Amino acid sequence: MRRTAALVLLGMLTARSVLADNCTEPVADSSCLALLGKSLDGLSALGKEYLNMCYSLIVDYAEIPDLPGLVLDTASNGQRSYDGWILDPVMTVDMVQAGMVEPLDTYIAADASLNWPDFIRYFRQVSSVYNGTVTGMPLAGKVSTLYYRKDVFAMANLSPPSTWDEFLTIARAMNGSDFNADGVPDYSICWQVINCLEDTVVFSQLLTPMIQALGTKSGWMFDPVSMTPLVNNEAMLKALSLYKELLSYTVPLPRGAQCMLAHMPFLQGS
Ligand SMILES: *[C@@H]1O[C@H](CO)[C@@H](O)[C@H](O)[C@H]1NC(C)=O
Ligand SMILES: *[C@@H]1O[C@H](CO)[C@@H](O)[C@H](O)[C@H]1NC(C)=O
Ligand SMILES: *[C@@H]1O[C@H](CO)[C@@H](O)[C@H](O)[C@H]1NC(C)=O
Prior knowledge:
Elements: H1 5-10, E1 13-16, E2 29-35, H2 41-52, E3 56-62, H3 67-77, E4 84-86, H4 92-97, H5 105-110, H6 121-127, E5 129-130, E6 133-134, H7 150-155, H8 164-174, H9 198-211, H10 234-247, H11 264-267
Parallel strand pairs: 2-3, 2-4
Antiparallel strand pairs: 1-3, 5-6
Helix pairs in contact: 9-10
This protein binds 2-acetamido-2-deoxy-beta-D-glucopyranose (3 copies).
The site of one 2-acetamido-2-deoxy-beta-D-glucopyranose has 5 residues, from loops.
């Protein structure tokens, strides 16, 4: 059921920034609509920059499910307009098609202080781009990284793996070692996969290098031209069997445990 813009607006929170001490009055108000969430570090950094330039920034926050309708409603009925939006990039398609988004390529090319090539390539070339045009600036994003105990690798005279097969060999060989010297054998992998979002992240990363022989143009799960599923193949079987064995070396989360941003068993040395 489609909610009306008026109802949704009632559900929004508005935050107005306080001007910096050295500004007597705002140069101009800027307003933006942001999704209400945890990853707002980018927004608070942007807010500070705005304040230093004596702009005041008015931010309306809305819940994720309300945002798509709200954004497109503001474009079509003009009851409330924004200078910018802080959204998940999946919304870009509808917004570009509604003519709401200014292409940013020429601004980026003209702004040497931005250091655009320094942005992580995925954010710069994929999530910010629609139909060959940069349509948004990355403000916050997550990347996953593998980290390892340097002391354990040095003691076992191992180098960090550079393929998943090397990773498996090491995980298999090290599993059951006592990493924190408490007399109890430990698991060798500290992922939080069961019931945590890491499950899909880890599995995608096992599968991707096997199905994207030509890079991203090979497609992901579907052939980009024919939309034929790309899952019924040897790569998927290999990734599943790799994953299955890796899970047998992965420390199970205790019952009722929370998914954490940090890997507690790793931090605790086991
Ligand atoms: C106000 O002060 C901040 C912090 O010292 C500075 O970065 C900014 O440029 C100043 N703004 C103006 C308009 O003078
Ligand atoms: C992509 O951009 C081209 C022009 O550069 C335009 O003709 C085309 O309609 C656009 N396609 C979509 C799906 O927006
Ligand atoms: C990995 O090590 C843990 C801890 O010793 C053990 O419980 C588990 O059975 C081991 N996994 C395999 C597949 O041997």
